[in-house]
Amino acid sequence: MSAEPFLPTSTPTPASSPAPRFGVWFIGARGSVATTAIAGCAAVAAGLHPPTGMVTETPDFASCGLPSLSSLVFGGHDTVDCPLPKRAEHLAAGGVLPHGLPSAVHAELVAADREIRSGGPLPADTDGGGPVRTDDDWIDVFAADIRDFVSRQGLAGAVVVNVASTEPAPTDGSLPPSSLYAAAALRAGCPYVNFTPSTGLHHPALAPVAESSGLPYAGRDGKTGQTLLRSVLGPMFLQRALAVRAWSGTNLLGGGDGAALADPAAAAAKNAGKERVLADTLGASVEGEVHIDDVPALGDWKTAWDHIAFDGFLGSRMILQTIWQGCDSALAAPLVLDLARLAVRAHQKGLTGPLSELGFYFKDPVGDGPSSLAEQYTELRRFAGHLRDETAHPGTRR
Q: What is the pTM (predicted TM-score) of this model?
């Protein structure tokens, strides 16, 4: 190896260029999941807490070129005006965030809150008697907000992540808000991740737009609790040749999700993913439904109960029951940070289209891929290897 050229003492050493920074633009930026993700990112980056729950902080991802947590800059859209520091205080009072954390990361919360723009459309936007914006108008406004964020912050790029409350599936062919935001992400040149069951890019009108965008995208509906367990137990029954006769479930939850899912149409969109995971992992549909009950007193905590009836050898009737109690925001936030980092890196590598390799994170993943969690994790690790491979060609998979 040749020696570095000698620099006379009179010649100043060039200053190293600053590390690139990347934006994470949340749809639903003042909600529980986004607030927990923003506060948690700041806490982990500062060394105040370990990165528990973040798969991208495990050894398999150590040299994948993912953006560091300290390089992430947050902003987003929301239709509510509660400032992030106040929202974080509410979450700490409910036990979602550690006591004292909102104060410790106050500056980061304030900085992110300054980058939140008004979302829509709201009923007043169409019923107020004034000029009515078209879908394309809304997409332009949202895309301009995202581009302005990237430009003003001097970012090397940004990813748009939908963590807003679940919306009912459209019934009249119109673009729901989640699809307007998704289209705006593509128009702004950003990768897109849908962590909700809402329509987003799944709208038929957006399929050709997504295909021709040259951008990577992933979704939908994050797999955090009950369905995570189903994606593990379903293959177990199949692999042990045990016949599942019925699988029913109940969710008790409060907070914004509980209120949103009290709408039967929104609950139907949520339950479709839960039931799809069972059908995919068991190889067939089984009797049973999932019920969601809004219990405001639970706040951001939830209880998920499953009752599984199955047959064993010689027709022996057996039952397995599971209870999952946890906080959805604390389960979701590390996954959201994982997905933001992976989508940014995929875009850097020139990958385009549906990121089926990220199915590990979703109930209803885009693209083709396995359904069981173990197989999805194998695909995710393979994807990590692809992100490390500097010889890979843009837009290709291995």
A: 0.89
